[in-house]
């Protein structure tokens, strides 16, 4: 309990501290209850603060003064005629088996696990190309507070109390480096209506997830915001979700749809910690994701909702796993 409270306090402190900055802020809630289920990837929360580096007077990315400046020298970043952004995120994810009523879940089922991560993402977004580099670090295990969060939430809502948390994955430090890139093709029709298609690819390396992915994201709407919108956290497989700032006096309405395939070598919620003995379960290493949703923006506010289907799960599950994503962003 003490470790859980420390973890939760850390999240609250980071959020409150960052609310004082005049930047872009995003809150994302992902939950399978939005699609009528309650297993596997059952809940994800992320808070992100994004800073537009072009507003920094005297800013000189790709310098050797600090570690963050050195990171801007990574391939694809700090190109000419692009917008540079730095984002800081706190991420919490909960994974549970299909059967929540037993104290000792089947060894063929998804293990209980909870993940808490902090992330720094550098992105360069141009008219056609977008590049994202992300470093995530944190923990999996009881210290991240998943047991307390889920059990108390289920008590408040009258849902089934999950009983098998004592079998959850053990504590282990996680570190992950990720890259995502995309090339957009865009056009317009009927004055204010636009379309955009973005083939994208990404690589993740670390003891949280090691995988490669590729796919395509399509958008159509009225007064689309600049830059492609990545609609989901992807259970650690995706690094961004509309990281760029956006303001406008007109309404912006966009519908997005995506298709992506991931080839996974290691995934801690199913494989278990890399350096500890724990529960694990077999799964399909090649996973096809489909997603669809909408974004509504005006002024400093943005709202979004989407559904993703095809999450990686244990081989014994008959149905494809899915979850919904709620997003709210604001500029201060």
Structural commentary:
Helix content is about 10%, strand content about 45%. It has a single domain (about 1-330), classed as Beta Barrel (Lipocalin). The chain is globular, with a radius of gyration of 20 Å. The protein has about 325 residues and is mainly beta. About 40% of the residues are buried.
Please outline what is shown here.
The protein is mainly β. The protein is globular.
Describe the secondary structure blueprint for this structure:
Blueprint (H helix, E strand, L loop, with lengths): L1 H17 L5 E8 L8 E13 L14 H5 L11 E14 L16 E13 L3 E12 L5 H12 L14 E12 L1 E5 L3 E14 L2 E14 L29 E16 H4 L14 E13 L2 E11 L9 E11 L1
Antiparallel strand pairs: 1-2, 1-13, 2-3, 3-4, 4-5, 5-6, 6-8, 7-8, 8-9, 9-10, 10-11, 11-12, 12-13
CATH fold topology:
Lipocalin
What's the CATH first level? Answer: Mainly Beta
Order of helices and strands: HEEHEEEHEEEEEHEEE
Please, what is the oligomeric state? single chain
In CATH, what is the homologous superfamily? Outer membrane protein
Helix tally?
Answer: 4
Q: Into which percentage range does the β-strand content fall?
A: over 45%
Rounded to the nearest angstrom, the radius of gyration is 20 Å
Q: Order of strands across the widest beta sheet?
A: 1-2-3-4-5-6-8-9-10-11-12-13
CATH architecture designation: Beta Barrel
């Amino acid at each position: 309990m003490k470790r859980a409270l420390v973890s939760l306090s850390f999240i609250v402190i980071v959020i409150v501290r960052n609310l004082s900055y005049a930047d872009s802020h995003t809150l994302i809630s992902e939950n399978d209850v939005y699609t009528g289920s309650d297993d596997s990837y059952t809940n994800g929360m992320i808070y992100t603060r994004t800073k537009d580096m072009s507003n920094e007077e005297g800013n000189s990315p790709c310098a050797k003064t600090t570690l963050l400046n050195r990171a801007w020298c990574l391939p694809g970043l700090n190109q000419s005629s692009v917008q540079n952004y730095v984002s800081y995120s706190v991420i919490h994810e909960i994974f549970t088996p299909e059967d929540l009523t037993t104290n000792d879940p089947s060894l063929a089922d998804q293990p209980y696990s909870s993940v808490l991560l902090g992330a720094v993402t550098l992105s360069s977004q141009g008219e056609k190309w977008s590049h994202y580099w992300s470093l995530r670090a944190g923990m999996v295990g009881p210290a991240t507070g998943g047991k307390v969060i889920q059990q108390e939430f289920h008590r408040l809502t009258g849902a089934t109390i999950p009983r098998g948390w004592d079998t959850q994955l053990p504590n282990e430090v996680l570190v992950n480096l990720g890259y995502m890139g995309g090339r957009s093709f865009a056009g317009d029709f009927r004055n204010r209506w636009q379309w955009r298609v973005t083939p994208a690819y990404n690589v993740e390396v670390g003891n949280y997830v090691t995988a490669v992915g590729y796919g395509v994201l399509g958008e159509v709407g009225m007064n689309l915001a600049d830059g492609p919108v990545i609609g989901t956290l992807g259970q650690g497989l995706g690094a961004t979700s509309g990281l760029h700032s956006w303001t406008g006096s007109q309404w912006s309405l966009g519908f997005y749809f995506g298709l992506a395939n991931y080839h996974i070598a290691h995934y801690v919620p199913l494989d278990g910690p890399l350096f500890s003995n724990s529960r694990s379960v077999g799964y399909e290493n090649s996973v096809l994701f489909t997603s669809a949703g909408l974004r509504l923006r005006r002024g400093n506010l943005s709202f979004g909702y989407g559904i993703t289907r095809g999450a990686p799960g244990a081989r014994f599950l008959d149905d494809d796993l899915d979850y919904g994503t709620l997003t709210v962003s604001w500029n201060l």
